[in-house]
Amino acid sequence: MTTLDTRYAHSPKDIARLNTAELREEFLVEQVFVSGEIKLTYTHNDRMIFGGVTPTTQPLEIVLNKELGVAYFLERRELGVINIGGAGKITIDGKTESMVKQDGYYIGKETKEVIFESDDPENPAKFYISSTPAQKKYPNVKIEISEIKPMKTGASEAMNDRNIYQYIHPNICESCQLQMGYTILEPGSSWNTMPCHTHERRMEAYLYFDFDEEQRVFHFMGKLDETKHLIVAPDQAVISPSWSIHSGVATTNYSFIWAMCGENITYDDMDFVATKDLK
């Protein structure tokens, strides 16, 4: 079964009036992975589609044609995939590849068939996907975390010592506008993206995971002078509009997948915000 939830774009003035429940309804995706199902969210922020594919006893295929006005899902889109669960397989136009935890894949437009499978239904693969509109076909590329040299950033004394793995990035493979990566915070660190920043030219979506069910992440968003926050459980995702700051802290260390799209694919195209200016 495939579920596609639609979220609409908002101006900064809109969220100033939202209470906690309304803010969560608009920007937090509380259920991403459901065993045996495909759970996707379509955001009108740059028309990104993101979500979870969790095959168990049967293979799963994303079929969105009528919903997108196309003949098949990737007719006019590109796709990024990262597996954060058990071992599985992905079949791309008849070519099957194994996908262990932390393996990723870039799949270019005009790919007609993408099928997801798990090796063990009791320990299913959890394929996190992100898809954006594309104007050109680039080669499909499998991406393994062992092949990526992480960007080390932050410091333990600032509680933000972390490794950034760039999966879909010009250093790794070509894409039209999709970028995607994996950040892992070291034990004892809990802050990410601090000092925070905005980038009016690109939106992002975040998936927070790899922390205990009893712990929580506090994701900060909003304008720098009127910040809001979302409290996020494991395996939940957040939509981050281009005008919003995005930063987070948690009650433990954790990992997150970031995916972004927009005007360019320049990773460091960002406008930093001084911590002292936040309100």
Automatic annotation (TrEMBL):
Annotated binding of Zn(2+), by residue: 197, 199, 204, 246
The protein's annotated pathway: Glycan metabolism; pectin degradation; 2-dehydro-3-deoxy-D-gluconate from pectin: step 4/5
The keyword Zinc is assigned to this record: yes
Enzyme Commission number(s) of this protein: 5.3.1.17
Annotated SUPFAM superfamilies: RmlC-like cupins
Catalytic reaction annotation: 5-dehydro-4-deoxy-D-glucuronate = 3-deoxy-D-glycero-2,5-hexodiulosonate
Alphabetized GO MF terms: 4-deoxy-L-threo-5-hexosulose-uronate ketol-isomerase activity; zinc ion binding
Keyword terms: Isomerase, Metal-binding, Zinc
Cofactor(s) in the UniProt record: Zn(2+)
GO biological process, one term: pectin catabolic process
Cofactor binding, note field: Binds 1 zinc ion per subunit.
Pfam family, one: KduI
InterPro entries named among the record's database cross-references: KduI, KduI/IolB_isomerase, KduI_N, RmlC-like_jellyroll, RmlC_Cupin_sf
Keyword DNA-binding: no
Top-level division of the source organism's lineage: Bacteria
NCBIfam families assigned: PRK00924.1
Sequence similarity: Belongs to the KduI family.
Annotated function: Catalyzes the isomerization of 5-dehydro-4-deoxy-D-glucuronate to 3-deoxy-D-glycero-2,5-hexodiulosonate.
Protein name: 4-deoxy-L-threo-5-hexosulose-uronate ketol-isomerase
The organism of origin for this protein: Pseudolactococcus hodotermopsidis
Gene designation per UniProt: kduI2_1
